[in-house]
Amino acid sequence: MSHTSERTGATRALVVDDERPIRLLMEKELPRAGYTVTCVGSGEEALEQLRAREFDVVLLDLKMPGIGGMETLRRIRGSGTTAEIVILTGHPDVESAINAMKLGAYDYLTKPFKLSELEEVLRRAAERKRLRQENTALRRMVAQREPAPIMVGRSPAISSLLATVERIAPSEANILIQGESGTGKSLVAKAIHAASPRASGPFLVINCSGFQDPLLESELFGHEKGAFTGAVGVKQGLFEVADGGTLLLDEVGEMSPAMQAKLLQVLDTKELRRVGGTRVHRVDVRIVAATNKDLAQEVRTGRFREDLYYRLNVVSLTVPSLRERKEDVSLLIEHFLRQFRVTGQKAKIVSPEAIPSLVDYPWPGNVRELANTIERLLILSSGDVIGLEDLPP
Q: Quick one: residue 196, left, alpha or beta (phi over 0 = left, psi -120 to 50 = alpha)?
């Protein structure tokens, strides 16, 4: 059961605590300080409230029955809300509060606390949210000067995907993108980055299947001079270079068990040591992982670590195959015809007779195969119109 005290234009606070005296105190005192307050007694109720409305600040107790405060925090951070989270904890549990901050909480208060302390931390949390919103708006204004990542299509499948991208981009949650090869997983990752508060930071990509372990470790975490044969100087890894931005781990399902363990350690601690080094480097990177494998099945067969799977899979997206969005094929054809015209290809059109054959083809290589096919047809067809006779058998 929730209780809300409304104040027009006030900072919106959600209090999540199973102790009724705490909730009554918040309902009484916070409106006097200018807050609209909603109080709930469980993590489940908190998640329901966050799905229903926007909040500026969440006051979250760590020790609660049901799903518990730490799990509630993880789910809130994965929900796409931009609310700042302040942890409420007892003195013996300060270490858990610090761990909660590593998961994205803004600050913590130990019980019992003074009202002045509560008001101060809430004021700072609300101010931080306001500044983040202003920064996001400024980044989007700047981003409008450059082409945004294009996801072409109007099908229900792609519309649902784009709506999910818009909803989750503002969060700090790690994201797992699944889908067949050629569906555009990296484009989805780039769109998430471009719409996130990290948009002004780096967006870096590494294909995890393209390196043996020693090289992959060096690429991700860097190395010190003399760490191995050929290490003639110090090198920053992608985690350090991407600090403040987003790192896409493409084909993450191809990682060896040893590399999975090292990646998990960095994700857990947000710290790394370069290969051959002893100094600890703090990193602030949002991870987007992509795979064409069924990672849940890989976990069941023991080929992928379960703990790493859950660390990466805070929010999951599946990019539909092209055969699941046939109504987008004609739009994509027009898109690629324009795209290749810009790169110097002769302007051509596809005849109305040829379109149904292209739409009905199953496209096992998905959007990538369609793009390659259109480019090949532009090069090989002799006239200004690509007809049925020009299509591959």
A: beta
